């Protein structure tokens, strides 16, 4: 949260009392406006398939083990000889200062890369996850666009409700990998296409299929636990042509912006 400090300066009131410039405050405000505008407009403009926009299932047999083996194999000699060095292999995510989706000024998130086993990573995406999403999507021919590494969220992390990139994150899966000392459920909050709010609790070995480009989703309440680790796998239909720009150019998109009394200058300045 950005607040005015006792000395009259602006800062992030997250314990660090970090000073920021007026320019950064404005940029962060623009990002937040962008998030809210996208949440209001994208679900009603961009086509979607499922009546709700999401579905929770168990991972197919062997998938959770393959993901864990992939992570362990990447750092095999470290686990074998220097287990405590495992955490040295995590990389803190470098979010832009104007980003407001995660409370990263307060709580850092980390990524464990799967790049060292990219062939296994891509095989999991194309041979296991893609057929599941293709069936759920009604038989769409899908193109693999991204498979992030294992993201580790730490205590008190939260994720503002948002919609994903419309260009690439159309049919996606959240893969629940592991939890450490999670004392209360850290639910995924979604606003279904029926307009209702749902709280989705995941255990290791479970996954959520979702249409992230139009489904509002997040984890807006702080994580009450030590670590919570997910992987995210994304696809788009091969015939897909929607983008953020095409939404703003669409007549309904223009009408929605006008109704909200928001201009693109408000979003992109």
Automatic annotation (TrEMBL):
Transmembrane stretches, start-end: 63-83
Keyword Transmembrane helix: yes
Keywords: Membrane, Transmembrane, Transmembrane helix
This protein's name: Fe2OG dioxygenase domain-containing protein
């Amino acid at each position: 949260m950005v607040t005015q400090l006792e000395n009259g300066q602006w800062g992030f009131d997250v314990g660090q009392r970090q000073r920021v410039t007026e320019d950064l405050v404005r940029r962060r405000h623009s990002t937040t406006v962008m998030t809210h505008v996208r949440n209001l407009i994208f679900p009603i403009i961009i086509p979607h398939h499922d009546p709700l926009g999401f579905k929770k299932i168990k991972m197919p047999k062997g998938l959770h083990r393959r993901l864990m083996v992939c992570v362990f194999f990447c750092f095999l000699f470290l686990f074998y000889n220097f287990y405590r060095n495992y955490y040295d292999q995590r990389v803190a995510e470098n979010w832009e200062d104007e980003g407001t989706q995660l409370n990263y000024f307060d709580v850092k998130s980390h990524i464990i890369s799967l790049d060292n086993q990219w062939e296994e990573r891509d095989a999991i995406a194309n041979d296991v996850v893609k057929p599941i999403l293709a069936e759920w999507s009604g038989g769409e021919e899908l193109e693999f666009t991204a498979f992030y590494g294992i993201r580790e969220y730490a205590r008190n992390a939260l994720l503002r409700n948002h919609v994903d990139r419309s260009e690439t994150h159309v049919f996606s899966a959240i893969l629940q990998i592991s939890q450490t000392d999670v004392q209360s459920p850290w639910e995924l909050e979604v606003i279904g296409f029926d307009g209702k709010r749902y709280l989705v609790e995941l255990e290791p070995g479970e996954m959520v299929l979702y249409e992230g480009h139009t489904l509002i989703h997040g984890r807006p309440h702080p994580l009450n636990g030590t670590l919570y680790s997910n992987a995210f796998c994304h696809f788009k239909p091969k015939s897909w042509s929607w983008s953020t720009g095409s939404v703003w150019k669409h007549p309904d998109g223009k009408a929605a912006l006008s109704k909200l009394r928001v201009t693109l200058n408000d979003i992109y300045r």
